[in-house]
Amino acid sequence: DSGAMTALGRASGVRVGGWGDAGRAMRGPPPPLPVLFVVLVAAPGTRAAGYETCPTVQPDMLNVHLLPHTHDDVGWVKTVDQYYYGVQNELHHGAVKNILDSVISALRAEPSRRFVYVEMAFFSRWWHQQTNATQQAVRELVRQGRLEFANGGWVMNDEAATHYGAIVDQMTLGLRFLQDTFGDDGRPRVAWHIDPFGHSREQASLFAQMGFDGIFLGRMDYQDRELRKKKREMELVWRASASLQPPTADLFTGLLSNAYDPPKHLCWDLVCDHDSSMVGDPFSPEDNADVLIDHFLDVATKQVTGCPEPAHPLPSPQQQASGSPVHVLYSTPACYLWELNKANLTWSLKEDDFFPYADGPHQFWTGYFSSRPALKRYERVSYNFLQVCKQLEALAAPAANVGPYGSGDSALLEEAMAVLQHHDAITGTSRQLVADDYARRLAAGWGRCEVLLSNALARLSGSQEAFSICPELNISVCPLSQTSARFQVAIYNPLARKVDRMVRLPVSAGAFLVKDPSGHAVPSDVLLLPQPEGQKPSPELLFSASVPALGFSIYSVSRVSLRRSKTHIPQPISQKPGSAVLNIKNEHIRATFNLETGFLMQIEDLEQKLVLPMNQSFFWYKAGTVGQKISQSSGAYIFKPQQQKPLPVSDSAQIHLLKTPLVQEVHQNFSAWCAQVVRLYRGQRHLELEWTVGPIPVGDKWGKEVISRFDMPLDTKGYFYTDSNGREILKRRKKRESRVGENYRPTWNLNQTEPVAGNYYPVNTRIYITDGKKQLTVLTDRSQGGSSLQDGSLELMVHRRLLLDDNRGVGEPLLEEGSGSWVRGRHLVLLDAVGTAAAGHRLLAEKEVLAPQVVLAPSGSALYHPGATRQLQFSGLRRELPPSVHLLTLARWGPQTLLLRLEHQFARGEDSGRNLSSPVTLNLQNLFSTFTITRLQETTLAANQPRASASRLQWNPDTGTTPTPTVPPLDPASITLQPMEIRTFVASVQWEEFAWSHGGDPVQA
Ligand SMILES: [Zn+2]
Predict the structure, then answer these.
(1) What total number of domains does the chain contain?
(2) Which of 337, 347, 597, 619 has its CA 20 to 30 A from that of 123?
(3) Is 91 part of any domain?
(4) Long-range contacts of 106-112 (CB under 8 A, 24+ apart)
(5) What's the CATH code of the domain at 590?
(6) How far, in Å, is the centroid of ligand 1 from the Cα of 158?
(7) Distance 128 CA to ligand 1 centre (A)
(8) For the region Disordered, what residue ranges are annotated (predicted)?
């Protein structure tokens, strides 16, 4: 949470709205007025399902809906627990527990009052601490519609740095709590994203698919907001998918005129105690009721002018003076939305997104796309591990939960991951102590999942291996493989298709024999890589593994005595001016380096005969410095370079070359804090750039924002493309031939104040540029900010270290003194012809987001139980799914039910090579090997209502209304997926007795 919109220039992590009682618990007695209100003129009409409890409005009057609410950050300046209990109030005054206590008692005291609550991470905790009597009273308030849940996710998630899979998971978790606790009475109708720092189109698409009737947003670009107010387009229909058939992904969108704050002079919250209390006492000289009422009416009348032409005329000043036709009522977001819907107006249609967000000139919130890169990566690998954990819980249940290694489950990691989606968590905009707490939560969740994984692998493999994860493999640390002469490597593949993967493990010195599950030796190399100063070089074993769909392969590794063991060591390359070039290559790709600079200078696709010269290197933008007089500096949120031109980290890189039968690598050393390995594994169709950056030196008193930049001779005409939360692709434009600067936004004429920061967009998984023939795509391993600032140029911000706070409330510079200061990551580069590029980047991104999980065990273990057969290879699927289908979710849902999500991962018309954009039909019968589906029910995306009975309010965009398509009858033998469609099922299942535990044939991939 953040913002400089209050008069104090500070934001609050916990805002309580509503009447005096709610505020009274926090400070002195304020008068009964709300924090936020929106207004509408409408005639009362019939009630749609779910809206029966809405208050009655007055026809022919200006109906002012007061929406009492609270915005509770799930961690920001304080940790989640500090906010909940009200600890460390000197850091930030707020206690969510007290808000909920006082709100509930105030609701019970006065029947006309209403309140809206949003964040289930807090509410579910509070709920479990209440007595039965209080719970019963709250159920009644929910049934009466007086306590309304909006959004209902575990958190109000960020929209820029989040992956769609994690958004779906966190919404499912929160909405499930509401459904289990309150049934349909508690199901939110309205999404409520009043604080995220810009809004993604994919988020709107997901909300539409979850069945929401509309969304309200708080933040948008200041220029966009002013123009929309003038054009009466503060409310609109957002068409959030270019692939899904309208109105599937259409979402009614309301933009709040004053973000989450109350109107000026009407704030009696603890954060704005400069506003005078209302005194309604005619005998007091302090009586100010008339003044405040006039002001209130004035605000209400002005706010109406941002909305579409109302059906009824506004009250004139004369009317107001003689008893105004204004009707003020306590309401909720859903009830306000319901009135808008009944007004039966026509709305403008929006098809782009709300990025980037600026709250004023030179104030672009595009830094947070890259802030805290280590936490962003930890979150992404935790998403991967959570899916592995949930799949194994579904495949091996209940042996996964209780087994030889104790009790384990996915619930703790699921909750931790949900918390990480909060708009101050994954964004990197919390204080350091809070970021540490987020990481602690993830680690605790990993612990429970590790037990589950060991139990499940023991059950499925028939032997009790002491499986363990090496969490520091990214820095080549793994005690088990580094100290054992013999060990086993189990590789679990969470994809619904077989994968081949290079496995790289630190080992002790010597030669090794690696055997696949059928006992055949597989080729392997030992590499001896240079380590940072002071550490001795550590050998790494490299071999290629093949793993069946939704299953595992167990490889054995043993040290062998060979007379001539061959260890590969990177060789220094002499770099004389004018000397020849250097190549690395495999079957598919050749990468060429300039020996003078040591930089990558060309990439070739050998099959398609595509050649693309390029220059790739690292640069940094100068952020603010201490003592400098600047109105806005870069900080956790904001990117504000002091010069538009970045400085090179180095003019050249020292290089080493490593060539083995399995891999070819060029090691580039740019500076003491910036290095990169450019790598081609055998068989790999992409070039891998593994960069290591940090700790970024700030001894020169300059904050630095480091980018990796690719410059190519491609005529890209000012366009580039970025993904939206890892799913659909949005076309971005940086207009070239403009007289007013370098400006472009799809829906308005931008007055650009920041040519660099104002052209940065979130990149969750990929960014690409094309000249219409060739396409260069870069996949990221975490969310980053990226742009194309010149034709043929593409850049990604990999790390940032700042000395100043950016004045949006977090109150700390983004210094990251600890382990977060040193970051390693990968960019995967694909060169393709335009028509076949999607097949490359879609399937590669899927493999990266759900990468195989490598676990190790010492050799020589007991059987799972006497008579069990050891099983070194396993697949949870009887047949692979086609490449266009992604298994998005396979998880336990209840004692005998599973949650299953299948997704078409290609957009409409995107692939012209292999026809991967076509609809695809699947048979779910006999698909899974460890269970049989006995009953299948289709639900909306968050699994909180059956699809057949779900209906949404209809809205009329100015381009014409499309009727909602009817839902076809469900046939498990024939499930069709359209491009970009996700279908969600709750499946009743019966787990099979595993065939091999009776000595039968093992399940084969
Ligand atoms: Zn917030």
Answers:
(1) 2
(2) 337
(3) yes
(4) 106/18, 106/19, 106/21, 106/22, 107/141, 107/146, 107/147, 108/137, 108/141, 109/21, 110/19, 111/146, 112/55, 112/329, 112/330
(5) 2.70.98.30
(6) 9
(7) 24
(8) 943-970
Give pTM, 2 decimals.
Answer: 0.93
Question: What confidence category does residue 630 fall into, taking pLDDT thresholds of 50, 70 and 90?
Answer: confident
Predicted confidence band at 828 (pLDDT cuts at 50, 70, 90)?
very high
Instruction: Report how far ligand 1's centroid is from the alpha carbon of 74 (Å).
Output: 8
What is the predicted pLDDT for the residue at 968?
82
Model confidence at 643, in pLDDT bands (50, 70, 90)? very high
Overall residue count recorded for the chain in this entry: 1005
71 part of a folded domain? yes
In a domain, 831, yes or no: yes
Tokens standing for residue 544:
């290629």
On whether the CB atoms of residues 385 and 445 are closer than 8 A, the answer is no
pLDDT of 27 strictly over 50: no
- Least Cα distance to 856 among 546, 519, 483 occurs for 483
The pLDDT of residue 29 is: 27
Range from 28-32, 494-498, 971-975 carrying the lowest mean pLDDT: 28-32
Q: Which of 850, 871, 887 is the last residue of a domain?
A: 850
SS3 424: coil
Q: What is the pLDDT of residue 997?
A: 42
Of residues 398 and 22, more confidence is placed in 398
Ligand 1 centroid from CA 844, angstroms: 34
For 262-294, b where at least 16 C-beta lie within 10 A, e where not — what string? Answer: bbeebbbbbbbeebeebeeeeeeeeeeeeebbe
Domain contains 749: yes
CA 723 to chain centre: 12
Tokens 């540490």 correspond to 436
CA of 266 from ligand 1 middle (Å) equals 21
> Which residues participate in catalysis according to the annotation?
195
Confirm if 605 and 832 have CB atoms less than 8 A apart: yes
Q: Is the Cβ–Cβ distance between 288 and 299 less than 8 Å?
A: no
Contact 720/766 with Cβ under 8 angstroms? Answer: no
pLDDT of residue 932: 96
- Among residues 333, 364, 395, the one where a domain terminates is 364
Residues 63/68/74/80 CA torsion (nearest 10 deg)? 180
**Percent share of the chain, pLDDT over 90:** 75
Q: How far is the CA of 265 from the centre of ligand 1 (A)?
A: 22
Closest alpha carbon to 104 in 86, 125, 123: 123
Structure tokens at 880: 């692979």
Select the more confidently predicted residue: 225 or 870.
225
CA 430 to ligand 1 centroid distance, Å: 10
Q: Are the C-beta atoms of 238 and 391 separated by less than 8 Å?
A: no
Per-residue pLDDT, 309: 61
Handedness of CA 383, 386, 392, 395 (dihedral sign): negative
Considering only CA atoms, which of 96, 134, 89 is closest in space to residue 117?
A: 96
* Overall average pLDDT of the 307-327 stretch: 61
Ligand 1 centroid – CA 217 distance (Å)? 12
- Beta strands 956-957 and 346-350 are parallel
- Calculate how far, in angstroms, residue 14's C-alpha sits from the geometric centre of ligand 1: 8
pLDDT at 564 over 90: no
Burial of 576 (0-12, 13-18, 19+ CB in 10 A): exposed
C-alpha of residue 457 to centroid of ligand 1, in Å: 41
Q: CA 687 to CA 786: how far, in whole Å?
A: 19
The half-sphere exposure of 482 on its side-chain side, counting CA atoms within 13 A, is 13
Residue 782 φ then ψ, to 5°: -165, 175
pLDDT at 996: 43
For residue 660, the enclosing domain spans: 581-850
Tell me the CATH number at 142.
3.20.110.10
Range 219-226 average pLDDT = 96
